[in-house]
Amino acid sequence: xxxxxxKRKKQLNDYARYSGLAIQxxxxxxxxxxxxxxIDGAMENETPIFTIILSLISVAVGLYTSLKDFIKPE
Length: 74
Prior knowledge:
The chain has helices at 4-43, 49-71. With 74 residues, the chain is mostly helical.
């Protein structure tokens, strides 16, 4: 039988793990989108093609890294 202290510790570890995954994914998406807007601004594009492409790529990379860490066996 699991002790209440061990159960609480596991809950806190899970909370920290999932919070970290969300922050990591948000940082990857934010960095990719910022880089796209920076490149579009530097090249003075009328259509934000680099913003669109890099934001979609960063979403895919963010999902990949989050799922890879989530599915990783403990």
